[in-house]
Amino acid sequence: MIDVDEIEINVPAKINLYLKIIRKRPDGYHDIDTLMQTVSLYDKLILKKSDGIELTVDGLSEIEPKDNLAYKAARIVSEMVDYPGAQIILKKYIPTGAGLGGGSADAAFVVRGLMQLYGLKLERFELKRRMALLGADIPFFLGTGQSRATGIGDIIEPIDLPIDYQVLIVKPEISINTRWAYQNAKIRLTKNPGNIILDKRTDIADIIRVIEKIGNDFEETVFAVSDNLSRVKKQLIDEKALYVSISGSGSAMFGIFEQGRRLESIAARLSADGFRTFICKPIVLQPII
Questions:
Q1: Which end of the chain, N or C, is less surrounded by CB atoms within 10 Å?
Q2: Does residue 177 fall inside a structural domain?
Q3: CA 13 to CA 130: how far, in whole Å?
Q4: Residue at which a domain ends, from 117, 137, 158
């Protein structure tokens, strides 16, 4: 292994192909069932060997560095194994308040980066436990980037999903606070997704037949505070998207399109209407847990 003093990492976003709220628990959290996929929309992360832990964030001024999940993840690693420290530079491109998992991904990839930078060996079960306490979906980004998540989102089951499609993500001006979304979401009395059997032979058409029956339970709540999103959904459907949904608790919406479809003109029209747009594709990660 070549010893380096600095590394740069792409940190991917995720989309929720479906999201079902099962019930509100006595502790105030919600049990969910969701299918998640990482995509090629990235934050940039630079880690430099240093004494002590320091985080600088470019593109996110609302959160103090020491309150950032990325900083907290680095501190947790220092509690698990001794290392000198790191200067962490985070450049934010994944929209916040969008349901794209940027904060959790940043935390997970700080862990990945520190392991690479210093050659650290971390006990996998303990790492997963500690990261789940920091953020329920952080362990997802330590896996393959293709998983079904249940419980409060912390029970991760890797699933081989097809990646033979492309994604257009549309972010409106409004952002959604996750806590608010859960407090206001309507729990639909529909059937639990139950056992979903998918394998490497499953193609995107098979996936869509599953996910379109479940959808996203946050959609009605989010649409109620942003009329523009229902219009965007109709526009993406009219553009022959194979499937359209919000991601996570919103506010970002995504459309799945066939490979080879030119999406630039669709993205340009939506951008002209004031939306941020991102053309990306599903990706698979090298798991560390």
A1: N
A2: yes
A3: 21
A4: 158
- The pLDDT, as a whole number, for residue 203 is 85
Alpha carbon separation from 154 to 133, 138, 274 (Å, rounded):
9, 8, 35
Residue 65: what pLDDT? 84
* Same domain, yes or no: 148 and 25: yes
Structure tokens at 176: 């959604």
**Which residue in the list 33, 137, 154, 217 is annotated as catalytic?**
137
Boundary of a domain, candidates 111, 130, 158: 158
Find, among 120, 101, 72, the residue nearest to 169 by Cα.
101
What total of structural domains would you count in the chain? 2
**CA–CA separation, 248 and 13 (whole Å):** 11
pLDDT at 59: 81
Give the chain's residues under pLDDT 50. Answer: none
Cα-based distances in Å from 143 to 81, 155, 224 = 21, 12, 34
Cβ neighbors of 210 (< 8 A, separation 6 or more) are: 18, 193, 196, 198
- Is 67 marked active-site? no
Give the sign of the dihedral formed by CA 262, CA 161, CA 202, CA 233. Answer: negative
pLDDT of res. 200: 53
Report which residue type is found at 145: G
On the 0-12 / 13-18 / 19+ scale of CB atoms within 10 A, 264 is exposed
179 and 147, same domain (yes or no):
no
Q: Looking at this protein, which amino acid is placed at residue 79?
A: E
pLDDT at 202: 73
For the question of residue 72 being annotated catalytic, the response is no
